[in-house]
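FAQ: What does the model actually see?

It sees only this:
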Amino acid sequence: MPPHLLLKELILTYGLALLLLLTAGRLRIPSIVALIVTGVIAGPSGIAIVATQEDVDLLAEVGIVLLLFMVGLEFSVGELRRVWRTVVFGGTLQVALTVAAAMGLVALVATGAFRLALFVGFFAALSSTAIVLKEMTGRNQADSFSGRLTTGVLLFQDLLIIVLLALQPLAAGTMPLASALGGVGWTLLAMALAAGVGWLVLPRLLRMAADLRTRDAFTLAVLLASVGTAWLTSVLGVSMALGAFLGGLVLGETEFSHQIHAELRPLRDALASLFFISMGMLIDPAVVVSSAGYVFGTAVAIVVVKALAAVSAFLLVGTPVRVAVAAGLMLAQAGEFSFLLGRTSVEAGIIPGEVWQVLLSAGVLTMLATPALVAYAPAIASWVAERAGSRAQERETDREEEISGHVVIVGFGIGGRLLASALRGIGQPYLVLDLNAATVRDARRAGERIYFGDASNRDALAVARIDSAVAVVGLMSDPDASIRLVRTVRAIAPTVTVIIRTRYRTEADRLRQAGATVAIAEELEASLEALAQLLARLHVPGNVITVLLETFRRSGDTSRTRQAPSIPFMGMPEQVRDMPISTHRLEDSDWSAGRTLGDVDLRARTGATVVAVQKGQEYVTSPAAALVLDPGDVLYLAGDDSDVQLARARLTDGR
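And it is asked to produce this:
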């Protein structure tokens, strides 16, 4: 196609997409739905803005390469290590149960079609990494326990496609078993080779580009790293998208991850939207209309079967009911690699074209349903957990002695550990609830009073004895779970103090409306802290800073009180730093020895101020009036020479 015609098609397609996105935004319809509908309308089966799809497919493939590169970049290997057992065993069970259930359903309507049934099973087993991650991030659910589990299983499925594509010739009957297994081995070797090259080359490449201090060089190095790893794996016979994911995973552990994200995001979003548009272009509206019953029935079957299989798998590996149901619902759609698997299966003759059109249309419908599934998954999961009477916490709590006057800490991340350490230091009893089994095991070995339990579940909170607690502090990353925690606590203990940390101000407003005593928004508090530190270093008086902070806080409607921060002495203005400080050592015969600072009353009698007192190896700054002066103490006196001389006389003989 001539370049100007491709440009024309892209401009018209993006124009239509923008129009639909604006309309969808006003109607609060997810953007992914608008993009897929754009593809249906603009595609060869619609008004044919794009008559042939090959060129758009090429750009869309680049978009999905950048998208999965970013997924790898943002994925935490450390977090995967923490949940790997649940991800690997739960993910394996999820795929196996989905494949078995789908094969059983296909066998009911197409007896003897084993290869077709096997393909449908794997088509349904894979989920959409791009859509689910986009929706979870937009709804602030990615850091929740169900979000982390979902992300891990999505990446497990993405890695599974390596084996599925390598075994596809075996399923098609065009390759013997030994050759197919050899193909799997070569694919895994190619991935390991690409990862090894990436670890050796990519960080050095970016460091060289960063040392030049030229943004153009760094941007080109990032593009080379993302598209280059994808190209390398394609040369080795592996999917470009998986190669890009590997490249992102390598660079995600370097110091450049945040800047790479900033450099690629605009380009990724522009090209990734083409991927969703291209998905819509694959749909033939005529097939959807003529086979509407099959299409909708297949779509519903995929969602239901996959959700039930995923929930069952997660429950079997010990995941709490609420988390299992939420993660299962978020995984209940076909994925990007399902379509890649489908295209290659059609070419290999595993499935007929008309069956593929039904599956394709049904798969896109499940993608369209994903925003709603992700949005309502937490609420549905909570409802199911309540109806199931979930008691997913360890039973050690039943054997614990009675406890009262304690603090219940929900969540044992950095904030939870800090809070527990502070309470332990002042002798305040506390009890911790957390949903991460590995965290609970490690903390219990360290002597913490911590239990595995879903704190949004009434039974778990009842066992934690919140009815006799003095406070409940929620430090979770899941905003929906935080809302349910507040409501459940209020149902059990209406008067207990509930302090909740959340990320955004709008979430803090919802938490206060639900009954939280204090809801602290990280977004606002971090901004106020930055403002306070800046004003202090601009030498704005502390009382002025405090007034400003309280004014902004009232406008932000938060409940926390912050004082102006103190700054080091060397950060003070020069005139303050140069203020003369004199010292005076008390002797046994001094009049002031044995008296308090209040009795000596240096400030009123002499004009000098005691800013600190050294007692042995300890220093008392801003000493109180009740401080008793002992022989050997060294007083630090602020004042001019005449004031200091009067102070020395007062300290020595009481004049």
